[in-house]
């Protein structure tokens, strides 16, 4: 097992559709990963990183009900295994295959759980998963902002997308656990805050601050606030659907991954419109809000900033985020990992993937020619400095991770058997008595 802190990066694998579904925004393609994946994995190791947020493109891999194309996936995951890089597997990142349509499709949760189980059976050495990435942001951008996928702008479409995304996540976790009983799930979810710009905006800001928790409340089986209960009931969720989430959470298998960017805090105006506020509270304050609500171990699963005209803005942001991580850790929040996202620069995130312009965004640890950026060198040094120090600084949860090359070790096999017995006992305890 690997004690201590999880330093990670990621390969950006967003795949939303725009322009009424006619254009697929495949970040792996835009960033050259399909051509340079071997080099990319080598760069991960050059940084001293053992953990990689990574997943195959869902629309290329899941080609029909119970039909899969594993060709690229087999090669890539074999190389991760060979290099002993532990993937945090991201199975659905902002989009679905054309044959499913979009997140309004009620068949999506069951279909996705089939895919998750098929993946776990094919790669049983994989332990860490983010089944559905940023459920809240996916629903928000697809159904309230009208930017991606279904491109709706209604509360009813938002609630429909949220309930389908969260149910897909829950069903996928259940399916994966049937194959890998000691699997751990890291919910990479955006941590948001809405600031009222004036007294007239207070009510709207409070509603938005309640809504930001909706995906995690449902995923973790937490009873939602009364205002949110009315909101979801008014917009198409049934009582049976709501009670399903209360009864079918897998919180004890989860680490709460929270993402924080400079754009995660918002000003709310009196007319209900929002715009970016910049950093007001910051990661430490907002993370404590989320931790107080869910009481789970935490991992900082995404952050970045553009390199900037001076060339040092990203480095300064890295230092600021790391200081926030240490602050919440020293305050007693069990934070177990940190991620600069992503390994390479990204493309078209300046328009939030709304426009297919081919604009390169200098957000990566490396540029798209695979040359290291200043923030990459700074992150490599940070990892080297802190890797051995952190486990001894304070009492911290030790995450029971089995690295790929340890999968067949006798102790790892015993751990899976123990997890399977524990899971079965838990299922038996929750099963209603026979009449």
TrEMBL record:
Stored InterPro entries: GH, Glyco_hydro_1
GO biological process: carbohydrate metabolic process
Start and end residues of each stretch annotated as Disordered: 412-435
A Pfam family matched in the record: Glyco_hydro_1
Molecular function terms from GO: hydrolase activity, hydrolyzing O-glycosyl compounds
Protein name, entry field: Beta-glucosidase/6-phospho-beta-glucosidase/beta-galactosidase
């Amino acid at each position: 097992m690997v004690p201590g802190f999880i330093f990670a990066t990621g390969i950006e694998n967003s795949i939303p559709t725009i322009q009424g579904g006619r254009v697929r925004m495949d970040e792996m393609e835009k960033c050259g990963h399909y051509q340079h994946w071997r080099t990319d994995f080598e760069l991960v190791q050059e940084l001293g990183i053992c953990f990689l947020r990574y997943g195959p493109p869902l629309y290329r891999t899941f080609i029909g009900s119970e039909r899969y194309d594993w060709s690229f996936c087999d090669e890539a995951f074999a190389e991760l295994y060979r290099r002993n890089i532990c993937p945090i597997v991201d199975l659905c990142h902002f989009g679905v295959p054309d044959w499913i349509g979009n997140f309004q499709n009620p068949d999506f949760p069951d279909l996705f759980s089939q895919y998750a189980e098929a993946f776990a059976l094919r790669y049983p050495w994989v332990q860490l998963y983010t089944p559905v990435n940023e459920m809240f942001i996916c629903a928000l951008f697809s159904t309230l902002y009208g930017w991606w996928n279904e491109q709706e702008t209604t509360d009813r479409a938002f609630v429909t997308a949220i309930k389908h995304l969260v149910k897909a996540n829950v069903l996928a976790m259940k399916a994966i656990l049937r194959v890998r009983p000691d699997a751990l799930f890291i919910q990479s979810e955006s941590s948001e805050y809405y600031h009222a710009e004036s007294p007239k905006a207070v009510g709207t800001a409070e509603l938005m601050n309640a809504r930001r928790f909706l995906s995690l409340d449902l995923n973790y089986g937490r009873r939602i606030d009364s205002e949110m209960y009315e909101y979801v009931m008014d917009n198409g969720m049934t009582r049976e659907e709501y009670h399903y989430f209360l009864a079918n959470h897998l919180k004890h298998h989860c680490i709460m991954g929270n993402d924080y960017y400079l754009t995660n805090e918002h000003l709310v105006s009196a007319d209900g419109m929002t715009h970016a506020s910049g950093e007001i509270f910051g990661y430490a304050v907002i993370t404590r809000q989320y931790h107080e609500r869910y009481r789970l171990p935490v991992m900082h699963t995404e952050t970045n900033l553009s390199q900037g005209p001076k060339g040092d803005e990203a480095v300064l942001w890295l230092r600021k985020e790391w200081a926030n991580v240490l602050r919440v850790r020293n305050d007693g929040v069990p934070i177990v990992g940190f991620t600069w996202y992503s390994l390479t620069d990204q493309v078209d995130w300046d328009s939030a993937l709304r426009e297919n312009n081919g604009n390169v965004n200098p957000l990566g640890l490396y540029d798209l020619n695979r040359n290291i950026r200043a923030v990459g060198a700074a992150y490599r040094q940070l990892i080297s400095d802190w890797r051995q120090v952190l486990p001894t600084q304070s009492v911290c949860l030790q995450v029971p991770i089995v690295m790929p090359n340890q999968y067949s070790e006798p102790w790892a096999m015993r751990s899976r058997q123990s997890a399977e017995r524990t899971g079965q006992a838990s299922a038996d305890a929750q099963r209603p008595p026979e009449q």
